[in-house]
Amino acid sequence: MLEHFNKHEHQFVLKVSDWVNQVYYSHKIKTTKFLTLREQEIVQMLVNQNSEVRVSFEGGFQKAERKRAILYPDYLKLNNLSQYVKGYEIEYNQKLVTLKHPQILGSLTALNIDRSLIGDIVVLSNGRIYLAICEEFSEFFLQHFHKVGKHSILIKESSISQFEKIDQEDEFEIIISSMRLDVIVASLMKVSRSQVHEYIMQAGVQVNWVIEQNHSRICQIGDVLSIKRHGRFRLKVLKSRTKSERFVIIVGKTV
């Protein structure tokens, strides 16, 4: 089974296999924390191998990216999946500051809150901010999350199912000699390729939500690169080629 997965995914694959067995033998529902797109894919793949176990995913928002998996015996019918996710609005003084996704997430992780307890964070064009969290974590969240940086905030429960998860991106251009992963990452990080090689080998880069350690991989337009401590980048458009055959790429960085 493990040979079909990246070695960095083996531990998670074994964990999911255990979840499936728990549901199969105990006939009880198993609810996970929030999962990435790749983790959701792995859960679905392993559940599909057992005809007596089913899985549903819930992230609160329309088109949510991060979702909880709810594994259950195939004879059960799940109602009200939204009960597993709590939605909240973050209120703050927009006249004094404009808060963005990295600031919200940074303040939460500064409280030693496990990232997997937090779903999507949605910042609307009007500055209003909503987020999804695990239902069982809501009490701790309300007790401890009162500031983003030095700015005071108010938290109120909110229905988030009406909102759609749409990534907001800052666009910019890069000019690169090839579409190799190391070349692109070096341009995005503004460091040398030798430094990038080490970063890639230390599992610091994901391509389409999967850790990639092949620095010579050829990337494609549409690929999403996640670089640890640097953010998420989408290769959006091949704008042109220069006279020296270099690639001019429009990149969108998630904000």
From TrEMBL:
Transmembrane segments: none annotated. Pfam families: S4 (PF01479), YlmH_RBD (PF17774). It comes from the Bacteria. CDD domains: S4. InterPro entries: Nucleotide-bd_a/b_plait_sf, RqcP2_RBD, S4_RNA-bd. SUPFAM superfamilies: Alpha-L RNA-binding motif (SSF55174). Keywords: RNA-binding. One of its GO terms (molecular function) is RNA binding. The keyword RNA-binding applies. The keyword RNA-binding applies. Residues 179-247 form the RNA-binding S4 domain. This is RNA-binding protein.
